[in-house]
Amino acid sequence: MIEEKGILFILSGPSGVGKGTVRKELFDQATELKYSISMTTRNSRPGETDGVDYFFKSKEEFEELIHQNELLEYAKYVNNYYGTPRTYVEQTLAAGYDVFLEIEVQGALQVKENFPEGVFIFLFPPSLEELKNRIVSRGTESSDLVLNRLKEARKEIEMMDAYDYVVVNDKVEHAVSKVQSIIQSEHLKRERVAKQYKKLLEDEL
Amino acid sequence: MIEEKGILFILSGPSGVGKGTVRKELFDQATELKYSISMTTRNSRPGETDGVDYFFKSKEEFEELIHQNELLEYAKYVNNYYGTPRTYVEQTLAAGYDVFLEIEVQGALQVKENFPEGVFIFLFPPSLEELKNRIVSRGTESSDLVLNRLKEARKEIEMMDAYDYVVVNDKVEHAVSKVQSIIQSEHLKRERVAKQYKKLLEDEL
């Protein structure tokens, strides 16, 4: 193993694009990836374990962590905070594991500000038509809401420029294979590994 | 197909590292890659076809092309020129094909100057010991020559900084799979494809 530190990969994209499905399939195949564990102020549910499903914190603790810039991103939904703790990510990377974060576009842009060395992958819908179908087929949205979410999706697609890669989610297995290529090739980048290779050489001389 | 233009990939590395073997195995698997056809002033041999095996040119023609900066790189061996014609590469890329060039380090550095948008992959020996074994096992070199080539190899490894990726050639099939990941992920880079994705979006609105 020439490299010691892991890489933070962020999979993001408009809602309805299928981020969760791609992440799930990826984790079924790439078992050495570590999923970023979120921090939340909501109560734990039966069966949930602190430090496994979530890091559970009080509202005061969470706000103190925000204040200390200890969250790579966070948001508040219905009176509860959700966020990505910096320390867990950094410790996992330092231990040599890649960390994988699947997240909405707004959150990804926050991570980009706080952790620009991450690798940002934008999941793109095969077409706006298809994105609409996917949003509609969730079945829970009125047609006004669907239109709003499509408008939102178009805005999010405009934010693509903050990302390093774009993967079209035409078929889950294709998208997963592309994400795997990105993960592998990022580990081969010269600026990441040249120092170690040169050291290897010096050790042999 | 979101993208129209191909990418020039350059596989290089110290002599003895196994560039030819990796390239051969890669081409057995990736049939849509186009191999860069070299230009030479040496006479064609029986069975060789102009424009397939080589582009055969007279010395005067070749020197005129050098003068016109029509070669991405060239060198002279035993009174004959060998080089990589820019026009063939550019036409093949424009037709949407990736072009693959396997070449010595000195040549790769020339290509880098003339075609910096290429993707440069450095093939690294698993160890200097192994590199020595490979050079020796070719069986045609005296021990002085082997030492010289090792010294040369160490110098070439120092030139790694001009490259985009480093792939260790521990096993051919691993190296090939890594090169394939690089080829795939380079096509997913946002700066290459964002314009086309945004156009796609506009066309749908």
Automatic annotation (TrEMBL), chains A, B:
EC numbers, comma separated: 2.7.4.8
Pfam families registered for this protein in UniProt: Guanylate_kin
GO cellular component, one term: cytosol
Residues of the Guanylate kinase-like domain: 6-184
Top EC class, one word: transferase
Location relative to the cell: Cytoplasm
Main location: cytoplasm
Record: residues binding ATP: 13-20
Keywords: ATP-binding, Cytoplasm, Kinase, Nucleotide-binding, Transferase
InterPro entries, alphabetized: GK/Ca_channel_bsu, Guanylate_kin-like_dom, Guanylate_kinase, Guanylate_kinase_CS, P-loop_NTPase
GO molecular function, one term: ATP binding
Catalytic activity: GMP + ATP = GDP + ADP
Chain's role: Essential for recycling GMP and indirectly, cGMP.
Family in the record: Belongs to the guanylate kinase family.
Protein name: Guanylate kinase
Organism: Oceanobacillus jordanicus
